[in-house]
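Throughout this chapter, every protein is written as a compact record of paired, labelled lines. The reader may check this reading against the record printed directly beneath this paragraph:
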Amino acid sequence: MATVTRENIGLLNDKITVKIGKEDYLPSFEKSLKNYSKQASIPGFRKGMVPVGIIKKMHGQSVFTDEVLRTVEKELGNYLVNEKLEVFGQPLPLPENDASQINVNKPEEYSFSFEIGIKPEFTVADIASKTVTQYKVDVTDEMVDQELERLQMRHGKMTDPESVSSDDNVLNVTFIETDAEGNETEGGIKKDNSLLVKYFAPDFRKELTGKKKDESLLIHVAKAFEGKEKEWVLNDLGLSEEEAGAKYFKLLITKVGLVEKAELNEDFYKVAFPGKEIGNEEELRKTIKEDIQAQWDAQSKSHRQHELYHLLLEDTQISFPEDFLKRWMETGAEQQKTPEQVEQEFPGFLNQLKWSLITEKIGAEQKIEVAPDDIKAFAKQQLFGYMGMNTLDAEQPWIEDYVNRMMQDRKFIEDSYHRIRTEKIFEWAETNAGKEEKPISAEDFNQLLAEHQHHHH
């Protein structure tokens, strides 16, 4: 008769020992041998007529070992279920186990030990007692002006003027590496690009004025650009800041273009905001402002959720069997790791594990569920986002076919389930936590996001 014993060996860390006797595994071993003899193909015997003794002589030890270990695993699994033990990962076999003791010619009592990491009991942080700021970014007239100009340029008409005349000219150029005198470097960098004149440093732009197609200038890249534009151009050329200090290029202009801004008329309103009824510039600016506000509100919501995430994570106290978890990462996980990798990755792993336990507990306590209709709606939402569609198109038959096809994709179902469930948990958290709405400028909000990112990395 099999017996299972359990002893504590550390914080949330137990040792389980399974002992099995001959009566626990011999019947299944003999049954396996008979099944094996019915299926075996051995020269000199008809299929299904191979004597069990022959099978035992040829394959007995491996079949015997399999049955003993299978019986041990079965007893261990039954014990975990019956005792309602919630454990991390799979039980880890202890080094004291010796499979070489299993001998088909000497059936006896066998004992195997495992260690388990037990999931802790804990209480989720009381977010109802916390206040999290909801920032409201002030959308200024200047922001509306900039977006309106961007839309006019985007939907404007490209023309081909004879020469460069303004910061809004578009230049197709070729960067050709040279020496300081302008002689081309053999095997040097040669790269095409398309740039607005306004991307160049202010002091350099006057040298471009009046330039025509097929004309060129000798430039020092590190001085011809500034800020993020310089970083972008250097990255495109494959140069570091240090390398750029000693590099010269011939800037060959291959085309001069200019986008004429689209006029503010009914045709522009329709192409800029399809599906919306806009009759004049005032309504257009109102729509632009609402769009910008919605974008900032989405970022503000994301920031608030990050704050709630850290509040729940940092204010919920949970103990872990850390030594066991490190051993599990080394030997029991799907991707086994070296001790050095474990030490490096363990803090992040522990945070992920803690967040998983917190969301599981909130989901169970608040009865947060994800229904098939939630996943279908999410599939449609993703499709509309990819294709720039709106909900008015939702009744088209091919969309329903797409959704039904996605509902057969196991990975999509699992990913969608976790994303929707997490979103619902944040909705619960936002509803329960105190909220303080605070106006803020776009500059200050961006600074706040940068500081938040730096603090948590």
